[in-house]
Amino acid sequence: MSTPTLDKHSAALDAAEDSDSHTITVTFRIRRFNPEVAAEATWEDFQLELDPKERVLDGLHKIKWEQDGTLTFRRSCAHGICGSDAMRINGKNRLACKTLIKDINPEKPITVEAIKGLTVLKDLVVDMDPFFQAYRDVMPFLITKGNEPTRERLQTAEDRERFDDTTKCILCAACTSSCPVFWNDGQYFGPAAIVNAHRFIFDSRDEAGEQRLEILNDKDGVWRCRTTFNCTDACPRGIEVTKAIQEVKRALITRRF
Amino acid sequence: MSAETTPVNDATSLYDADNPAPVIEAPRKRTGKTPKTTRTNFELYGWLFMRLSGIVLVVLVLGHLLIQLMLDGGVSKIGFAFVAGRWASPFWQAWDLIMLWLAMLHGANGLRTVINDYAQRDNTRFWLKMLLYTATVFTVLLGTLVIFTFDPNIR
Ligand code: HEM
Ligand code: SF4
Ligand code: FES
């Protein structure tokens, strides 16, 4: 019974609708914490019907809207741009809004927990203040000397290309909260702060690269990175985070020698 | 149709909205009061030293293991006479001295990294590092002393 209501109807969609079996039953195993109820966090299972082409975020919505309104998590854009909904899904840091059910083996319970290394406030919500403090500490804004030009600050395409990768960051904290050094010591700036410093250090229009390099040369800066590549694996924007850190290290070394 | 594995709300709960449980703070979290940069290159040199000493140690340590454990009858040949024979040559004295210093400083700096990573309280950090530095200085000095003052005629 293919109803021509949508012009984009594909054969696969038709088949799914015809057989009436496009939804499957999945289990979400969610790490719950509510300080107003108990001091310990506990796992709670939810069963729900989902289309495998839906996302983990859709599942969380379904639970919150239809089963348990107390489930607490952050999301805004729901399209991978605002960086609100980084969480640990089946042990890996991802954005719930970019993770399709079919890509994470819906046969087994799907575990969902808050990102690590930051204080859990409730369920999947963590305190992001230390993360943004590190971001602020690398001065993530254009700094120039002299008079303001009367027209826009021009830059060649090659100069723009130099730091293109690190402009894509949405500050979701997936990288920083996947880093074992950060888990153990929150004084470490963490990958995200270094990525955002990189974005200005290698920008030909910026004039405070020296200052930012000096900040990251410190004992809690880039030298604490142990090249585990967890950050690169975690980044939902596909930024080569470890490479960016390595480029900052190299800039520091070539500056000295 | 939620299947709860653990009851979240039980009547005997100690906590409520006015009296919430303490949250688990992240270790050593960054705040506005975190000290600003110290402007030294110590960590840069430490990082470089790990890589440069590592390259030299590949030759020294693997050569050392090869000579001591595999060539010429293997480990059973090692005795006072074997050591005395080798240390009669300034070449092997220099080899062992450089290996001692590089391996000890490399290992100590590596353990310093491990302590920085794992010790949470500033006090624990400080004392673990003091223990590490004491042990390192002691071993390096003792080893150096032995290499330079070794007497093959000792009875
Ligand atoms: C055989 C040649 C060796 C090479 C090429 C080598 C190389 C390295 C490098 C590059 C690092 C830094 C890793 C990082 O920054 O993440 C390191 C760390 C370390 N090395 Fe070596 N090393 C060698 C031998 C040794 C020896 C003989 C010792 C013991 C005396 C040692 C003890 C350590 C320790 C404790 C660490 C710190 C571990 C960590 O950072 O997790 N290494 N090594
Ligand atoms: S670098 Fe990637 S993982 Fe890290 S905060 Fe930015 S977008 Fe998120
Ligand atoms: S909700 Fe905005 S990134 Fe996922």
From TrEMBL, chain A:
One of the entry's Gene Ontology molecular-function terms is: electron transfer activity
GO biological process assignments = respiratory electron transport chain; tricarboxylic acid cycle
Which pathway does UniProt place it in? Carbohydrate metabolism; tricarboxylic acid cycle
User: How is the cofactor bound, as the UniProt entry phrases it?
Assistant: Binds 1 [2Fe-2S] cluster.
Which UniProt keyword terms apply here? Answer: 2Fe-2S, 3Fe-4S, 4Fe-4S, Iron, Iron-sulfur, Metal-binding, Oxidoreductase, Tricarboxylic acid cycle
InterPro entries per UniProt: 2Fe-2S_ferredoxin-like_sf, 2Fe-2S_ferredoxin-type, 4Fe4S_Fe-S-bd, 4Fe4S_Fe_S_CS, Beta-grasp_dom_sf, Helical_ferredxn, SDH/FRD_Iron-Sulfur, Succ_DH/fum_Rdtase_Fe-S
This chain belongs to the protein called Fumarate reductase iron-sulfur subunit
Indicate whether Metal-binding appears among the record's keywords. Answer: yes
User: Domain 4Fe-4S ferredoxin-type spans what residues?
Assistant: 159-181
TrEMBL record, chain B:
Please state where this protein is localized: Membrane
Query: Which keywords does UniProt give here?
Result: Heme, Iron, Membrane, Metal-binding, Transmembrane, Transmembrane helix
- The question of whether Cytoplasm is a record keyword is answered with no
Q: Does the keyword rRNA-binding apply?
A: no
Q: What are the GO MF terms of this UniProt record?
A: metal ion binding
The region called Disordered is annotated at: 1-35
Identify one Pfam family in the record.
Answer: Sdh_cyt
Q: Which GO terms describe its cellular component?
A: membrane
Q: Where is the composition biased (Polar residues)?
A: 1-12
- The membrane-spanning stretches of this chain are 48-71, 91-109, 130-150
Q: What is its main location?
A: membrane
Name the record gives this protein = Succinate dehydrogenase
